[in-house]
Amino acid sequence: MEIDRFKDDFGPEKIFEVYDSKTGMKGVLVIDNTWRGVSKGGIRMTPSVDVEEVFRLARTMTWKNAMADLPFGGAKSGIVADPRTITSGEKKAIVQSFSRALKPLVPSLYIAGPDVSTTEEEMKWFAEANGDKNSATGKPSSMGGLPHELGSTGFGVAQATRVAAEFSGKSLNGATIAIEGFGNVGSFVAKNLNDLGAKIVGVSDSKGCVYSEGGLEYNDIVTAKSRHGTVTAMKKAEKFDGTKLFELPVNILIPAALPDVINKSNVDKIKAKIIVEGSNIPMKPEIEEILHQRGVLVVPDFVANAGGVISSYAELKGFTKERMFQLVEEKVTANVRRTLERSKKEKVKPRDAALKIAQERVKKARKK
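Request: output the structure for the sequence above.
Response:
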């Protein structure tokens, strides 16, 4: 059975694979752990998503929710489809078919949210098909939601970056930054770090990478992306294959899109001294270990990018967007400091320190 491949003392509790021949929907939900509360995690839609990837993401959500000290367990779901090759109508039919298939579990055991290729619009479709507005967070404001398009995840990653720089004795003002991905996470990371005085010198998307040693103007990146659909349309910038981004001579590298982008093929070419994981599972633990041995500070995903799930909690509590952003800053900065201080004290890599904190909280919930 699939569950036997992944199970340990923490989970997963349930794995569901669902299909619908009418719409072509093929999806998977992994409920990893519910000791702290109803499981929470987003829906991603990619042509390659599979059970193993969803489990890894669900486990990350278990730690992320515990690290953020939220009353949620960990879960994740995925729909196997290529959003670039289907119409909006086809996408809606697939998302709503997925929602109906999961209705016996949602929202009693699982609450959905946005992720790769899903936004407030997809969360609206999901909630409508389910019949319960609490079946998904990140919905449009017209449905009482706090959509992730407000930039909660990217805002939190920028705050995590600020704390990591301070911890390393470096000023964020003038620090050179490269960001993989310019979607809902990467674009807001760039905006917030730009506002904090950092210098964005490299950005990538699915079409490639742009780089300028003197810095890229944030508004120019936004204009290129909105008008031409890619950052590579920028003028006055060098253009490379997207994989080149990880090799750029920068102070801080922020993967903010796809999983496993830092791997055996490029880990030895990374020049950044700080990596803040804006995306989930951008590298496997053994790759993180290689970087740690080289003295690279890696702020793990479930600590750095918790802004989205903190926003989800704020939405369920009925908070305003102002209170939500305040909560994201408070929780992310406190947890990054706690992680880095424990890492230094115990002489372990930040991921190991953060895992100890998260596991202690999960185990405590189990005892209760």
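The mean pLDDT is 96.
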